[in-house]
Protein backbone atom coordinates (compact mmCIF):
# COMPACT_ATOMS: atom_id res chain seq x y z
CA UNK A 1 0.00 0.00 0.00
CA UNK A 2 2.94 2.31 0.41
CA UNK A 3 3.16 2.83 -3.37
CA UNK A 4 -0.52 3.84 -3.44
CA UNK A 5 0.11 6.19 -0.51
CA UNK A 6 3.03 7.78 -2.35
CA UNK A 7 0.96 8.28 -5.50
CA UNK A 8 -1.86 9.90 -3.51
CA UNK A 9 0.55 12.14 -1.58
CA UNK A 10 2.29 13.31 -4.74
CA UNK A 11 -1.00 13.94 -6.57
CA UNK A 12 -2.07 16.34 -3.80
CA UNK A 13 0.65 18.70 -5.04
CA UNK A 14 -1.78 19.65 -7.84
CA UNK A 15 -3.71 21.63 -5.19
CA UNK A 16 -0.68 23.57 -3.90
CA UNK A 17 -0.25 27.06 -5.31
CA UNK A 18 2.47 29.67 -4.98
CA UNK A 19 2.47 31.72 -1.74
CA UNK A 20 -0.03 29.44 -0.02
CA UNK A 21 -0.07 28.53 3.65
CA UNK A 22 -0.50 24.75 3.47
CA UNK A 23 -2.17 22.81 6.27
CA UNK A 24 -0.45 19.48 6.79
CA UNK A 25 -1.93 16.38 8.44
CA UNK A 26 -0.24 13.38 10.01
CA UNK A 27 0.65 9.82 9.03
CA UNK A 28 2.52 7.72 6.49
CA UNK A 29 0.53 9.00 3.48
CA UNK A 30 1.08 12.60 4.54
CA UNK A 31 4.81 11.87 4.90
CA UNK A 32 4.90 11.36 1.11
CA UNK A 33 3.07 14.66 0.64
CA UNK A 34 5.57 16.48 2.88
CA UNK A 35 8.46 15.01 0.92
CA UNK A 36 6.87 16.24 -2.32
CA UNK A 37 6.10 19.64 -0.79
CA UNK A 38 9.80 20.07 -0.06
CA UNK A 39 10.36 20.51 -3.79
CA UNK A 40 8.24 23.67 -3.62
CA UNK A 41 9.37 24.96 -0.24
CA UNK A 42 10.70 28.28 -1.56
CA UNK A 43 7.40 29.04 -3.29
CA UNK A 44 4.95 28.51 -0.41
CA UNK A 45 4.38 30.84 2.56
CA UNK A 46 4.84 27.96 5.00
CA UNK A 47 2.94 25.12 6.63
CA UNK A 48 0.58 24.71 9.56
CA UNK A 49 1.25 21.35 11.16
CA UNK A 50 -1.17 18.96 12.89
CA UNK A 51 1.41 17.11 15.01
CA UNK A 52 4.92 17.10 16.44
CA UNK A 53 5.68 14.23 14.05
CA UNK A 54 4.77 16.25 10.96
CA UNK A 55 6.47 19.36 12.35
CA UNK A 56 9.73 17.44 12.61
CA UNK A 57 9.48 16.17 9.05
CA UNK A 58 8.55 19.61 7.69
CA UNK A 59 11.43 21.30 9.51
CA UNK A 60 13.79 18.54 8.39
CA UNK A 61 13.04 19.66 4.84
CA UNK A 62 13.52 23.33 5.75
CA UNK A 63 9.81 24.13 5.46
CA UNK A 64 8.73 26.88 7.84
CA UNK A 65 6.06 25.81 10.34
CA UNK A 66 3.59 28.58 11.18
CA UNK A 67 1.25 29.15 14.13
CA UNK A 68 -2.38 28.77 13.02
CA UNK A 69 -3.28 31.77 15.19
CA UNK A 70 -1.14 33.95 12.96
CA UNK A 71 -2.68 32.65 9.72
CA UNK A 72 -6.45 33.06 9.88
CA UNK A 73 -8.35 30.90 7.38
CA UNK A 74 -6.00 28.79 5.29
CA UNK A 75 -6.59 27.85 1.66
CA UNK A 76 -5.62 24.18 1.76
CA UNK A 77 -5.38 21.24 4.16
CA UNK A 78 -3.95 17.87 3.07
CA UNK A 79 -4.36 14.86 5.32
CA UNK A 80 -4.85 11.10 5.28
CA UNK A 81 -7.63 9.01 6.82
CA UNK A 82 -8.29 5.61 8.33
CA UNK A 83 -11.64 5.22 6.57
CA UNK A 84 -13.57 7.18 3.94
CA UNK A 85 -17.22 6.65 2.98
CA UNK A 86 -18.95 7.59 -0.31
CA UNK A 87 -19.89 11.01 1.17
CA UNK A 88 -16.17 11.76 1.82
CA UNK A 89 -16.83 11.51 5.54
CA UNK A 90 -13.89 10.11 7.44
CA UNK A 91 -12.62 8.25 10.45
CA UNK A 92 -9.28 9.70 11.51
CA UNK A 93 -7.01 9.53 14.53
CA UNK A 94 -5.15 6.26 14.02
CA UNK A 95 -2.04 8.36 14.61
CA UNK A 96 -3.62 10.09 17.64
CA UNK A 97 -3.45 13.52 16.00
CA UNK A 98 -7.20 13.92 15.52
CA UNK A 99 -7.75 17.09 17.55
CA UNK A 100 -5.21 19.26 15.78
CA UNK A 101 -6.22 17.67 12.48
CA UNK A 102 -9.81 18.65 13.10
CA UNK A 103 -8.84 22.21 13.99
CA UNK A 104 -6.89 22.68 10.78
CA UNK A 105 -9.59 21.01 8.66
CA UNK A 106 -12.08 23.49 10.10
CA UNK A 107 -9.79 26.41 9.30
CA UNK A 108 -9.23 25.28 5.72
CA UNK A 109 -11.14 26.37 2.64
CA UNK A 110 -10.30 23.11 0.85
CA UNK A 111 -9.61 19.79 2.58
CA UNK A 112 -7.89 17.29 0.31
CA UNK A 113 -7.83 13.77 1.76
CA UNK A 114 -5.20 11.33 0.50
CA UNK A 115 -5.77 7.60 0.92
CA UNK A 116 -4.90 4.21 -0.48
CA UNK A 117 -7.81 2.06 -1.77
CA UNK A 118 -7.96 -0.04 1.43
CA UNK A 119 -9.43 2.97 3.26
CA UNK A 120 -12.60 3.11 1.14
CA UNK A 121 -15.71 1.73 2.87
CA UNK A 122 -19.46 1.87 2.29
CA UNK A 123 -20.22 2.45 5.99
CA UNK A 124 -17.79 3.90 8.54
CA UNK A 125 -16.94 1.90 11.65
CA UNK A 126 -14.86 -1.14 10.74
CA UNK A 127 -11.84 0.87 11.88
CA UNK A 128 -12.23 1.53 15.63
CA UNK A 129 -13.33 5.14 16.16
CA UNK A 130 -10.64 7.15 18.02
CA UNK A 131 -11.80 9.60 20.69
CA UNK A 132 -9.37 11.91 22.49
CA UNK A 133 -10.28 12.29 26.17
CA UNK A 134 -9.05 14.28 29.15
CA UNK A 135 -7.25 11.60 31.25
CA UNK A 136 -9.41 11.98 34.39
CA UNK A 137 -12.56 11.38 32.30
CA UNK A 138 -11.41 8.15 30.64
CA UNK A 139 -13.70 5.79 32.57
CA UNK A 140 -16.63 8.20 32.56
CA UNK A 141 -16.42 8.71 28.81
CA UNK A 142 -16.01 4.97 28.28
CA UNK A 143 -19.23 4.25 30.19
CA UNK A 144 -21.13 6.96 28.32
CA UNK A 145 -19.94 5.60 24.97
CA UNK A 146 -21.25 2.14 25.84
CA UNK A 147 -24.60 3.59 26.90
CA UNK A 148 -24.95 5.92 23.91
CA UNK A 149 -23.62 3.73 21.09
CA UNK A 150 -23.34 0.12 22.24
CA UNK A 151 -19.73 0.20 20.99
CA UNK A 152 -16.80 -1.16 22.99
CA UNK A 153 -14.24 1.49 23.97
CA UNK A 154 -10.66 0.30 24.40
CA UNK A 155 -8.05 2.54 26.04
CA UNK A 156 -5.01 2.97 23.75
CA UNK A 157 -2.60 2.45 26.64
CA UNK A 158 0.79 4.10 26.37
CA UNK A 159 -0.41 6.73 23.90
CA UNK A 160 -0.38 10.36 25.03
CA UNK A 161 -1.51 12.89 22.45
CA UNK A 162 0.42 16.05 21.61
CA UNK A 163 -2.14 17.81 23.83
CA UNK A 164 -1.36 15.60 26.85
CA UNK A 165 -4.57 13.58 26.58
CA UNK A 166 -5.49 9.91 26.10
CA UNK A 167 -7.27 8.02 23.32
CA UNK A 168 -10.17 5.56 23.44
CA UNK A 169 -10.76 3.40 20.34
CA UNK A 170 -14.40 2.42 19.97
CA UNK A 171 -14.92 -0.99 18.39
CA UNK A 172 -18.08 -2.55 17.00
CA UNK A 173 -19.73 0.51 15.46
CA UNK A 174 -21.60 0.66 12.17
CA UNK A 175 -22.03 4.37 11.63
CA UNK A 176 -25.11 4.99 9.48
CA UNK A 177 -25.43 8.67 10.49
CA UNK A 178 -21.90 10.03 11.05
CA UNK A 179 -22.98 13.66 11.55
CA UNK A 180 -25.42 12.70 14.31
CA UNK A 181 -22.90 10.44 16.06
CA UNK A 182 -20.20 13.11 15.89
CA UNK A 183 -22.54 15.64 17.46
CA UNK A 184 -23.72 13.21 20.13
CA UNK A 185 -20.23 12.18 21.24
CA UNK A 186 -18.93 15.76 21.15
CA UNK A 187 -21.35 16.59 23.96
CA UNK A 188 -19.94 14.11 26.49
CA UNK A 189 -17.92 15.98 29.14
CA UNK A 190 -14.28 14.91 28.96
CA UNK A 191 -14.34 14.30 25.21
CA UNK A 192 -11.77 16.56 23.56
CA UNK A 193 -12.57 15.48 20.03
CA UNK A 194 -14.08 12.62 18.07
CA UNK A 195 -12.27 11.10 15.10
CA UNK A 196 -15.34 11.43 12.91
CA UNK A 197 -14.90 14.06 10.22
CA UNK A 198 -18.52 14.22 9.05
CA UNK A 199 -19.81 17.68 9.92
CA UNK A 200 -16.74 18.92 8.06
CA UNK A 201 -15.95 16.16 5.53
CA UNK A 202 -13.18 16.22 2.95
CA UNK A 203 -13.85 18.31 -0.15
CA UNK A 204 -11.70 16.14 -2.40
CA UNK A 205 -10.47 12.58 -1.94
CA UNK A 206 -7.45 11.29 -3.84
CA UNK A 207 -7.23 7.51 -3.96
CA UNK A 208 -3.68 6.44 -4.78
CA UNK A 209 -3.25 4.28 -7.88
CA UNK A 210 -2.06 4.49 -11.49
CA UNK A 211 -3.49 6.93 -12.25
CA UNK A 212 -4.76 8.34 -8.93
CA UNK A 213 -8.55 8.51 -8.71
CA UNK A 214 -10.21 11.81 -7.66
CA UNK A 215 -13.51 11.68 -5.78
C1 LIG B 1 -3.54 10.44 12.14
C2 LIG B 1 -4.51 10.16 11.06
C3 LIG B 1 -3.98 9.60 9.78
O1 LIG B 1 -4.37 10.44 8.73
C4 LIG B 1 -4.55 8.22 9.56
O2 LIG B 1 -4.25 7.42 10.68
C5 LIG B 1 -4.01 7.58 8.28
O3 LIG B 1 -2.66 7.29 8.44
P1 LIG B 1 -1.78 6.63 7.30
O4 LIG B 1 -1.66 7.64 6.20
O5 LIG B 1 -0.46 6.33 7.97
O6 LIG B 1 -2.47 5.37 6.83
O7 LIG B 1 -5.69 10.38 11.17
O8 LIG B 1 -4.17 10.84 13.32
Give the gist of this structure.
The protein has 215 residues and is an alpha/beta fold. The protein is built from 6 helices and 13 strands. Helix content is 28%, strand content 25%.
Structure description:
- The strands form 3 sheets. Strands 2-1-3-6-12-13 form a 6-stranded mixed β-sheet. Strands 8-9-7-10 form a 4-stranded antiparallel β-sheet.
- The chain is built from 6 helices and 13 strands.
- β4 and β5 (90-91) form a beta hairpin.
- It folds into 2 domains: 2-119 and 199-214, Rossmann fold; 129-195, Alpha-Beta Plaits (2-Layer Sandwich).
- It has helices at residues 2-11, 28-37, 52-60, 98-107, 138-149, 178-186; strands at residues 21-24, 46-49, 74-79, 83-84, 90-91, 108-115, 129-133, 152-155, 166-171, 191-194, 196-197, 204-207, 213-214.
- The longest helix is centred in the C-terminal third of the chain and has 12 residues, at 138-149.
- The protein is of the alpha/beta class.
- The chain binds ribulose-5-phosphate.
- The site of ribulose-5-phosphate has 17 residues, from α2 and α4.
